[in-house]
Design a protein that fits this description.
Blueprint (H helix, E strand, L loop, with lengths): L1 H33 L1 H4 L6 H37 L2 H7 L4 H42 L3 H4 L12 E8 L6 E8 L8 E12 L5 E14 L14 E14 L21 H28 L22 H7 L2 H67 L6 H25 L5 H24 L7 H20 L1
Antiparallel strand pairs: 1-2, 2-3, 3-4, 4-5
Length: about 475
């Protein structure tokens, strides 16, 4: 048995490592495609690029590992079945579950390691990746400038560019809002074209503008101006050079400032965040409910006249309204409508705030479950891949890759739907986050049972014979 265990273990480890790095590479390419505009043309140093790729790969490990386990288990037991080795092992009296037992222990250890990785390494990587992305995006603001969009990446400036040359060296139809000197109310500069050049040490940026106007507000101290008569100054220029000092904002911030995001926290910190958001939400909800029950938004004071005192509170307002004159009823309805609008304007921001806090609280609660579901997925995918490979009896990268992609995509679609259902209160948090895992457990249990009983559910000859019988019955019916 030990020889069989060692043989199966060797067959499993090699494709596991290969498929893991292949999956990680594919996911990394997809990730880089999303941020390609923020990286290309920045003149980044190779150390920064290595750091970026390293943190990016670490954040993708929890997604690549389950796919690698599924694909490796499919290939391992598919190869055993295709070479009839699995049949020989079963003929020797060794059950499929015994063949799988050393790999079950191994995958269980991987799952435990995946949990600690997701709980400790992943949050650290997410914090550092966000800090690094902030530094990269501010390396070359001229590259990140998008056409006809206001950009706030440059310090104390808002820039809009109408169009750019294909190589990005020259920009046209430039508008710059200067916020550096707020005491003089800043200014607006409009230019036909211009360039942005960085110093070698990136300590300052030189903005050169051609053919434009500089507008600035001119106010005398202590003198008040109407908004329509505020004096301003317009200066025409053929060439204007603006030097902007690159402040600390363009450097990499401390990674700890990104620790408030749910993906950047471990379970202990997530528990504290959930408790904080839960207590704030409960406190605000209780305060709102108390104010609604204690405040009478429609009382008898609307019936007060100049010559009368307040109507007693225990009187029937509907009866009183019906016996009042028509003009008074109109005034009452107008006041009630105005008061209802004020109440709505007062309550609407509170409602939106409560809705946001409830959503945030549910997102943090869902993230706690995700730390476990990602690790549990490794074990579940093995119980799908191993019996399915024994049933398919096809090794290599053909059929196993197709089947793996189908299950992997289905899992993450279900996981996304479950997360949405949980955060939008369509279902409970635990069910929404574990819905995909529960379904895969049922599928894995069914496939393991079928593989242990030598099922032929994936044998194409069985289905071909079945459809041939149907055709025969059809021909006989037509002949009759």
């Amino acid at each position: 048995m030990k020889k069989i265990y060692r043989y199966v273990f060797k067959l499993f480890v090699s494709p596991l490592l290969a498929t893991f790095f292949v999956s990680l590479f594919v996911l990394l390419m997809q990730f880089l495609w999303k941020y390609v505009e923020d990286i290309v043309g920045k003149g980044l140093e190779w150390q920064t690029l290595i750091e970026f790729f390293g943190y990016s790969m670490l954040t993708l490990v929890p997604m690549a590992l389950p796919l690698a386990i599924l694909l490796a288990s499919l290939m391992t037991f598919g190869n055993l079945g295709e070479r009839l080795e699995l049949l020989s092992i079963k003929a020797a009296g060794v059950s499929l579950f015994k063949v799988m037992s050393p790999l079950i222990i191994f995958v269980f250890i991987i799952s435990v390691g995946a949990f600690f990785f997701s709980n400790n390494v992943l949050p650290h990587s997410m914090r550092n990746l966000r800090a690094l992305m902030h530094e990269i995006q501010n390396q070359r603001p001229d590259i990140s400038l998008k056409e006809k969009v206001f950009d706030y990446s440059m310090p104390d400036m808002t820039v809009k560019v109408g169009s750019k040359a294909p190589d990005g060296s020259m920009m046209y139809d430039i508008m710059i809002y200067n916020h550096r000197d707020r005491s003089e109310h800043g200014g607006v500069t409009v230019a036909d074209s211009g360039t942005i050049v960085f110093s070698e040490d990136r300590s300052y940026t030189t903005i050169t503008l051609y053919d434009g106007y500089a507008y600035s507000i001119v106010k005398e101290d202590g003198k008040k101006y109407d908004t329509k008569t505020v004096p301003y100054r317009r200066d025409k220029f053929g060439k204007q050079v603006v030097i902007v000092e690159n402040t600390e904002e363009n450097k990499r911030p401390d990674a700890s400032i990104y620790g408030n995001h749910r993906t950047s926290q471990d379970i202990a910190t997530l528990n504290l965040s959930v408790h904080k958001y839960d207590s704030i939400y409960t406190k605000k909800l209780t305060a709102l409910q108390t104010s609604l029950t204690q405040t009478s938004y429609l009382d008898s004071r609307v019936f007060q006249s100049k010559d009368s005192s307040y109507v007693p509170a225990d009187i029937n307002l509907d009866s009183l309204f019906l016996v009042t004159p028509h003009n008074t009823q109109t005034n009452i309805l107008a006041k009630a409508k105005d008061q209802a609008a004020k109440i709505k304007n007062t309550l609407e921001p509170k409602r939106k705030d409560l809705k946001w806090r409830r959503l945030t609280m549910k997102q943090f609660k869902s993230e706690r479950h995700r730390r476990f579901t990602l690790a549990f997925a490794c074990l579940v995918f093995f119980f799908i891949g191993a019996p399915l490979g024994a049933i398919i009896r096809k090794g290599g990268f053909g059929m196993p890759v197709v089947v793996s992609i189908i299950f992997f995509v289905a899992y993450y679609i279900l996981d996304t739907f479950g997360y949405k259902f949980a955060t939008e209160s369509f279902t409970s948090i635990w069910f929404g986050m574990w819905m995909s895992s529960i379904l895969l457990v049922l599928i894995g249990g069914f496939l393991t049972w079928k593989a242990a009983t030598d099922s032929v559910i994936m044998d194409s000859d069985i289905y071909r014979k079945f459809f041939k019988k149907i055709n025969i019955f059809k021909k006989n019916n037509d002949a009759e």
